[in-house]
Amino acid sequence: MIGELLHYSVLVPWLLGMVFGIFVGATPGLTATMAVALIVPISFHLQSPTAGLAMIVGVSFTAIFAGDIPATYLRIPGTPASAAATLDGHQLARQGRGGLALTLDLLCSSFGGLIGVGLLIAVAPQLARFALQFSFYEKFWLAVFGLSLSALVSAGSTGKGLMAACLGMLLSTVGMDIVSGVPRYSFGSVNMMSGLDFIPVMIGLFGLSEVFRHVSRPIGALRDTMISDRDSLPLFEACRLIWRHKVTVLQSSVVGTVIGALPGAGADIAAWGAYGLAQKSTRHGPRFGTGVIEGVVAPTAANNAAVAGAWIPALVFGVPGDAVTAIVLGALMMYDIKPGPQIFVESRHQMQALFAVAVITQVLLLIAGLAGIKAFGAIMRLPRSMVLAAVVVFSVVGSYALNNSLFDVYLMLIFGVVGYLLESQRVPLAPMILGLILGPMVEENLRVGLINSDGNFGPFFTRPICAVLVGLLLLTYVGLPAVKMLWRWKSGRAAA
Q1: Residue span of the structural domain in which 473 resides
Q2: Are both 471 and 416 inside the same structural domain?
Q3: How far is CA 221 from CA 75, 216, 288, 405, 466, in A?
Q4: How sure is the predictor about 156, in pLDDT bands with cuts at 50, 70 and 90?
Q5: pLDDT 10s digits, 211-245
Q6: Is 457 within a domain?
Q7: Rounded distance between C-alpha atoms, residue 342 and residue 315, angstroms
Q8: 158 burial via Cβ count (<10 Å: 0-12, 13-18, 19+)
Q9: Based on the domain organization, do 185 and 323 belong to the same domain?
Q10: What's the CA angle centered on 314, arms 452 and 462, to 5 degrees?
């Protein structure tokens, strides 16, 4: 296994993917989701699925860490998951300790990733045994629950998140009917008979829309860069501080993994959750935001752990934990790896390789991260027009190379405009891509379940696991808002 992973055909694209992840993550405005979206089409042309998975995993972990670099020096998060690093990390940089903050970020990202991967390896196979009890009825509610939760926790209002998820599900119905085989919404186009390929859609939504968003802004110079090529990277001091705050690091890693495993939550919510918990559980809580060490280590340990946590529902249930794993889920299907309870039996070798890649990536992250911190100044001095032009080239080439079809390029352009318009109205894009991925799962399990029950909806509500999932949905969308309203009403009466 190790010999296969260290073969040049796997190791070279793996390392190149990590370098690409550092570049994208450290460039403000370019997200980890975009990095994975652009790299997936390239991975399909590699010699083996293992090499493709190694490249994708390397990109996702390094891009999340690299977002902390501009967040620390510029107070501009490179990725949404790095927003919490703009607080204490940036304050340390203003105090001339930016090198220490980024060294802490790097070590905690690697440690948090190891904890997350360890929990993934321990929990996922056990959870898969439980998931074997799921029939069409349970899988339907699981997919609906994942979509609903992604809409609830995404940026913007819950209503807009639900709208985006429904739009994604609507797009998933384009093509051949999964039961009758009749074409739907193809408008006589041969290219649309097989449905909308999620990769051009995804590249347009997450890649090209970013270009449109940046082009629409006035070009201005970044102020107060705080970059110093002479900043030292004190590894020994950082290790000593991490040991002193080991409870916070461990706590944040576990919290990040748990939140990352919630469908739709993602690394950004995990980072803020761990930051808030650390603030409440330490005596330095009132000083958070002024350059406190716990405020640096908590979010960065959590966001990389969340990347691993998001793989748990994706592998076991076929429900992505976030937008990145939604993309990876589609890639796995194209590699003929079918996520679900049987994945550890049917694709045992690929899963062992995936777990090994995830562990080794945390070690390689230390090397790539150190190089990325040093190279950050040179990257940030590149003209913005050059960076955006590179994104456009990657988007066009990635979309065309998948099927050698200009239709995919046009599809990418259309959804680039759609993504830009949706984001201008603060409509989140992650639920939309999740709807596109999970839509067939919702439709297939609903229709097959109804066929098995002769059109009776009863089993969708009376089976024990279904009842639990329905109860969780009601609690999420009815119970929690009711509790909040009651709390506000009581607070208003007490204030009066």
Answers
A1: 466-496
A2: no
A3: 14, 15, 29, 39, 54
A4: low
A5: 888 787 765 543 433 344 445 667 788 888 888 88
A6: no
A7: 10
A8: middle
A9: yes
A10: 35
